[in-house]
Design a protein that fits this description.
The protein has 11 helices and 17 strands. It has helices at about 15-25, 40-50, 65-70, 90-95, 95-115, 135-155, 175-185, 205-215, 235-250, 275-280, 320-330, and strands at about 5-10, 30-35, 55-60, 80, 120-125, 160-165, 170, 190, 200, 225, 230, 255-260, 270-275, 280-285, 285-290, 305, 310. A hairpin with a 3-residue loop joins strand 14 and strand 15. The longest helix has 21 residues, at about 95-115. The radius of gyration is 20 Å and the shape is globular. The mean pLDDT is about 95.
Length: about 325
């Protein structure tokens, strides 16, 4: 087992991805998992939910505070950096706060990992980092560059750095599905930015497995991109309305859909890989690997050269409504 008797740090460990990573890692009997976050109440809730296991430690702290990050990283083998300021409008209206958390915080993680001789670090990024039109995407792109170049500039350090690029995680905290459910229950209506908008979607299980796989397979500075379905926003809204109405005895025909237009910084479609990146990208059955430009190219078993072109939700065929329903059924829609 990869994590058996190892020391792991999850930065942002009380978020949706962090909690899922923790539960997967605990199965493998690690020596200790440290949960680092700034929300004491979420830590309290998670501790109670887990039954206060002896090999889980909860540390209050912020990635903006280098000294605290460095202390949290003492004697750690593997680091998952999943903390971020990620709400697009919040980042648009508070751009410097996004810079402090997403860019400065990531730099703190890199510096502390090298100082503490961590074995591997994986950083979670987003499709919004590709051709960014918003502050969130721009800060994540910059953070990606920091992590990638760390592999080149780390000197004699043996720490390995890698990046995972996510699409939208179905049902995660702050995502559109929980919002739709609340709107339907409270007001018999939902707000839709644009029905023709498309997005890459992945389940929490997929996101978690990809992140762990990236840590295990990383050789230095690369970006791992999961192949994932594209969902049309109108189809997603229709499925969530039908499933919510069925659960609570409401009538779908009574639901009102208000189109409100794109919010500041949003795009009609998202990208996970640019044309330029595809020139040197590798392909596996379930993911792409984009090697770093800053270090020598590594060999990955069963990987072949990727086809040239942008990996975009605009040029991928959206899945059917029934496939959307199947995906939605895999999450706890009404948690």
């Amino acid at each position: 087992m990869f994590f058996k008797d190892k020391n792991i740090l999850i930065i942002g460990g009380t978020g949706t991805i962090g909690r899922s990573l923790l539960k997967h890692i605990l199965i493998q009997q690690p020596k200790v998992v440290r949960i680092f976050s700034r929300d004491e109440y979420k830590q309290f809730e998670l501790s109670n939910e887990l039954g206060n296991p002896q090999n889980v430690r909860f540390l209050i702290g912020d990635v903006r505070d280098y000294e605290r990050v460095s202390i949290a990283m003492q004697e750690i083998d593997y680091v998952f950096h999943v903390a971020a300021m990620k709400h697009v409008p919040a980042c648009e209206y508070n751009p410097y706060e996004a810079v402090l958390t997403n860019i400065v915080g990531t730099n703190h993680v890199i510096k502390a990992a090298i100082e503490r001789k961590v074995t591997k670090v994986v950083f979670t990024s987003t499709d919004k980092a590709i051709s960014p039109t918003n502050t969130y995407g721009a800060t994540k792109l910059t953070s990606e560059r920091l992590v990638a170049v760390a592999e080149f500039s780390k000197g004699l350090s043996k720490t390995t750095f890698a990046i995972v690029r996510f699409g939208n995680v179905l049902g995660s905290r702050g995502s559109v599905i929980p919002l739709f459910v609340k709107q339907i229950k409270r007001a018999n209506r939902i707000t839709l930015t644009d029905p023709s908008m498309s997005r890459f979607m992945m389940t929490l299980q997929q996101a978690t497995v990809l992140t762990i796989k990236a840590l295990q397979q990383s050789k230095g500075g690369e970006v791992f991109v999961l192949k994932m379905p594209v969902i049309n926003l109108k189809d997603l809204a229709t499925v969530v309305i039908e499933e919510t109405c069925n659960r609570f005895g409401l009538k779908p025909e009574d639901m009102q859909v208000d189109t409100i237009g794109i919010r500041p910084g949003e795009k009609m479609f998202e990208e996970l890989m640019t044309e330029e990146e595809s020139r040197w990208a590798l392909e596996l059955p379930d993911m792409y690997i984009i090697p770093s430009n800053f270090v020598k190219r590594h060999h990955y078993q069963d990987a072949v050269k990727a086809a040239y072109g942008t990996y975009s939700s605009h040029n991928q065929q959206p899945i059917s409504s029934e496939e959307v329903r199947r995906l939605v059924s895999e999450i706890n829609l009404f948690e």
